[in-house]
Design brief:
By secondary structure, the protein is mainly α. The protein has one domain (2-218). The protein has eight helices and no strands. It has helices at residues 2-14, 20-29, 31-59, 64-96, 106-145, 150-172, 183-203, 212-218. Helix 1 runs antiparallel to helix 3 (31-59), helix 3 runs antiparallel to helix 4 (64-96) and helix 6 (150-172) packs antiparallel against helix 7 (183-203). The radius of gyration is 20 Å and the shape is elongated. Residues 209-219 have low confidence and may be disordered.
Length: 219
């Protein structure tokens, strides 16, 4: 929820599509709010590290190799968000100008700042492939573990694989978003992530009888 609030409640209000000058004015007029958004993204990255470590610990007994591969893919997702956040710092520095940036002129700096903000979208969809791959892999491990209902695990595999497919097609055919809305790439996966989170919160880990002996033997 934090990342949604930051990117839609804060950054979405300040960034104006196809208008670098208006975006720059909004950010300068609300610089503290913009910096809060940057901090929110950094906290989100830290939270992801905690979450992914916990998932690795839980799913490692099922298959250590696949669990390790999944966390490496997840780390690429964290790195993606870190790069997106660094771009926000770069954009702010350009928009603010300064002694050594004055030679470029305010208008050019505004355009460069908006360019750095726009790069975040490219980084997002580059990283989305890896987090979708990890989600597909981890969903398979959830299915094997018996910790969650089989139906939920299967639907999570399908939604994650759908995100992988859409992202790969989008890389090759950039107008694919006119066929499948960009929101639909990862929305099903996010929905099932939320459902899984609530399931674990209220039900906890409850491996089936069929799975328990396998886990014991692996230990």
């Amino acid at each position: 929820m934090l990342v949604v609030f930051v990117n839609f409640g804060i950054l979405g209000r300040l960034i104006v599509v196809n208008n670098a000058a208006e975006t720059a004015r909004n950010i300068l007029a609300n610089e503290q709010l913009f910096r809060i958004g940057i901090l929110g993204n950094l906290i989100y990255c830290a939270g992801l590290m905690v979450l992914f470590t916990a998932l690795y610990v839980i799913l490692k007994p099922i298959n250590p190799g696949l669990a390790l591969l999944g966390i490496f893919w997840r780390l690429i997702w964290v790195l993606t968000w870190f790069l997106i956040t660094l771009n926000l710092f770069d954009a702010l520095r350009l928009i603010n100008g300064g002694t050594y940036l004055g030679a470029f002129g305010a208008e050019r700096l505004q355009v460069l700042g908006r360019f750095h903000l726009a790069k975040g979208i490219d980084y997002y969809y580059a990283g989305l492939l890896f987090t979708a791959l990890a989600s597909t892999l981890y969903s398979y491990l959830w299915l094997k573990s018996g910790y969650i209902p089989r139906t939920l695990a299967v639907l999570r595999i399908i939604s994650s694989a759908f995100c992988v497919a859409c992202t790969l097609i989008f890389y090759i055919f950039p107008h694919f978003d006119q066929i499948v809305n960009l929101w639909l790439f990862d929305m099903p996966m996010v929905i099932f992530d939320i459902v899984l989170g609530f399931w674990l919160l209220f039900k906890g880990l409850n491996p089936s009888r069929k799975t328990q002996p396998n886990l014991i033997n692996q230990e």
